[in-house]
Amino acid sequence: MSDATDATGVRPAGPADVPAVLALWARARSAAASTPDTPETVARLLEADPGALLVAATPGAGAAIVGSIVAAWDGWRGNMYRLAVDPAHRRRGIALALVRAGERRLQERGARRVTALVAHDEADAVGLWVAAGYGRDQAIARFVRNL
Ligand SMILES: CC(C)(COP(=O)(O)OP(=O)(O)OC[C@H]1O[C@@H](n2cnc3c(N)ncnc32)[C@H](O)[C@@H]1OP(=O)(O)O)[C@@H](O)C(=O)NCCC(=O)NCCS
C-alpha cells in the first residue's frame, strides 16, 4: 500500500501493518486504552472502513511505522482516535501530518465536523490538538457505556 504514501510519509495501513501498529500503540500511548486493542479489533476496522487507519512511516527500505491515527467516517461525522507517535520521533510534525491526512480523508467523504477524544489530563495531546486548530467543546458532554 506504499504507493498511496503522501509527501509527509503518511499512508493508509493494510492488514500486514497491524502487528507494527499494535506495537506502536503499546510503546507510544500514554495510558492503556479503556477498550483493549487486539489484532481482531484492528482487522475489523480495516474491513469496516478501509483506509481509516493511517500510518506514518520512515522513508526507504525497511520502513518503520512511527505514527498512527484512526480517521473514522460513520456516514455522519468524522472521529479521530489512536493518535500516537513513537517517542523517539516526536516534535517533528508527524502528528500534525497525520491529523491533516485524516481531515482530508474525512472531508472527501463528506464530513463537516471532526471530533477528537482527548483525556483532560493528557497535556501532550491537548497541546497537539490545540496546535492543530481544534477547540475544546464546552457545551457537549460525552455519555459513554461499554457494551
Ligand atoms: C501527542 C503526540 C501524538 C504528538 O506527536 P508529535 O508528532 O510529537 O506532534 P507534532 O510534532 O506534530 O507537534 C505539532 C505541534 O503540536 C504541539 N505539541 C506537540 N506535542 C506537544 C507537547 N508534548 N506539549 C505541548 N504541545 C505539543 C506543538 O505546538 C507542536 O509544534 P512545535 O513542535 O513546533 O512546538 C505524541 O506526543 C504522543 O504520541 N503522545 C502520547 C499519545 C497521545 O497522547 N496521543 C494523543 C491521544 S488524543
How would you portray this structure in words?
The protein is 31% helix and 19% strand. It has 4 helices and 5 strands, in the order E-H-H-E-E-E-H-E-H. The chain has a 5-stranded mixed beta sheet, sandwiched between helices. Helix 3 (94-108) links the parallel strand 4 and strand 5. By secondary structure, the chain is of the alpha+beta class. The protein binds coenzyme A. Coenzyme A is lined by residues 28-30, 83-85, 90-96, 116, 118, 122-125, 127-128, 131. Residues 28-30, 83-85, 90-96, 116, 118, 122-125, 127-128, 131 line the site of coenzyme A.
Quantity of strands, as a count:
5
Q: Spans of 5+ residues with little confidence (pLDDT < 50)?
A: none
Secondary structural class: alpha+beta
Give the overall shape: globular
Beta-strand percentage range: 15-25%
- Helix count equals 4
The proportion of residues forming helix, as a percent range, comes to 25-40%
Could you describe the largest sheet, including whether it forms a barrel? 5 strands, mixed
Distance between the termini: 33 Å
Please list the strands of the largest sheet in the order they lie side by side: 1-2-3-4-5
Draw up the topology in text.
Blueprint: E1 10-12, H1 18-28, H2 39-48, E2 53-57, E3 65-73, E4 78-85, H3 94-108, E5 114-116, H4 123-131
The structure holds coenzyme A.
What characteristics describe this protein?
binds coenzyme A; 31% helix; alpha+beta; globular; five-stranded mixed sheet; 147 residues; 4 helices
